[in-house]
Amino acid sequence: MNFISFSEEKCVNCYKCIRACHTKAISVFGDRQENDEERCISCGECYVSCEHDGFFIKDKVQEVKDALSSNKKVIASLAPSFPGAFSLKEGEQIVSALKKLGFYAVEETAVGADVILDSYEDYTENSTLDNLISTSCPSANYLVEKYYPELKKYMMPVVSPMVAHGKSIRQFYGEDVYVVFIGPCIAKKVEAKEPQYEGIINSVLTFVELQKWFEEESLDLQKFDPQPFDRKGTNKGKLIPCKIKLAEEKNKRFEKLVVTGVEQCKELLESIKKGELSGLFLEMLSCAGGCIDGTGIPKDAVSYHVRKKRVRDYIKKSDNEEGSNICKEPIDISRKVSAKEVKEHQYTNAQILGVLNSMGKNKKEDELNCNACGYGTCRELAESILRGSSHVNMCLPYMRSKAESLKNVIFDHSPNAIFMVGFDLTVKEFNPASEKLFNKNVEKIKGKRIGEVISEEIFEKVLETKSNMIGKKIEYSQHGVILIANIIYLKEQSVLMTIMTDVTSEEKNKEELVRVKKNTLDVAQSVIDKQMRVAQEVAGLLGETTAETKVALTKLKDIVIEERGNE
Q1: Residue 194, domain member (yes or no)
Q2: Hey, which end of the chain has fewer CB within 10 Å, N or C?
């Protein structure tokens, strides 16, 4: 069951979630991450570790609201750690608040824990096994089933208090009720959906989800009058799974040992696997502080120790109270141990070395084992890459080396002059193009004032304004060059990064083009002047011949008129 979703937009690729994941069940594909359900033990540590809300639990509140609006009898099973999750004057104030939301009945999950405790005591009295492992924490169960299958024989075939209580609720109220478990555990969402528990628990809400629901409804828990639970468990039941308390007379062969946190559980299981420990009744909890510090508990209000005290005070206050009538008749609390073993592929040393070499780790000393990628060692990352769960770009030293290598290539081979000038105007770096342009060897100019090369005026202006100078055209006649200067003000590094582009040839080409244009214009003007002179001369000649023609024609006209008169 994929109960955790991932937001690509909020991920900053810090790999903190991978560091938090004890079974490396998170696969990274570019900027996208996914939970590998086969490897995941549903502890929820990835969700808790992400400070950018990159992971979020699929909210089931609307699902419960729909059940409430359908007029079903919705029964709440409330985990014993609830006083640590909410600020209450009286523990029973939460009962009133839940009934205000519409719950038909509110019961303590400890009702189911009492049934489980009786079964545990009988089992320890009659067992011939070397060790026993309690099965109240689903995440711890998945750890054994998936990664220590040879130790499954020690797992007690008994359901968790949540499942036992769900069965008890259905027996007490009828099979048609809608059962909601509310607790500090994300893994319970997965446990409730296991095929063997189908139809027992309808929905699971974490205390985080319930708190959000209370806030949406503007419910202040401290303003409610306390209201008794419809059924409640004994104080012994309230301690499960935080701390199992077994009857001494029935637990003669086994020493009780409570272990919290996945890494501690793994260490203990390794010792049992090697045969180094025996005679233990193990209660393993995946959360480092137990259920009071579960991944489904709001952690923005009070510290772990305050939560622990609240739970202790609530249990102490009910020292003399008896549990409710639990079952009309015995219920089936048997649990099947699942076959979920994770098959780890064994990669050859040559395959692992091939991946390490691709990350620039060519010898043992190159394997820094820095854990920046989320994996404990470079070889673990290499195996994850071979498995298809990671990629080489997750190795930060490799990426840094690659980036620095690229930076050096650009710096050394750029055709532009690139140099760094400190705020004291001394040269810090001087690339080969700068050496060639200004005819200065880097060793001779480094540490000297930039004024020994070019004028300091533009640098002083940038320091004064504390703003970048971009695209400034400057001519340095002493070097015979015209440059486009860009000076970047880097406050944190206390340097001025300068990039100068030689545009001398382009500028000379521009001057030549202007000269050619001027010459062309001069020639054009000369031709125009000549044409005008020719036109004027032609016009003059045409004028003279026209006048002569007019005189001749006039004389001819007069002769003709005179002849007609004589006739």
Answers
A1: yes
A2: C
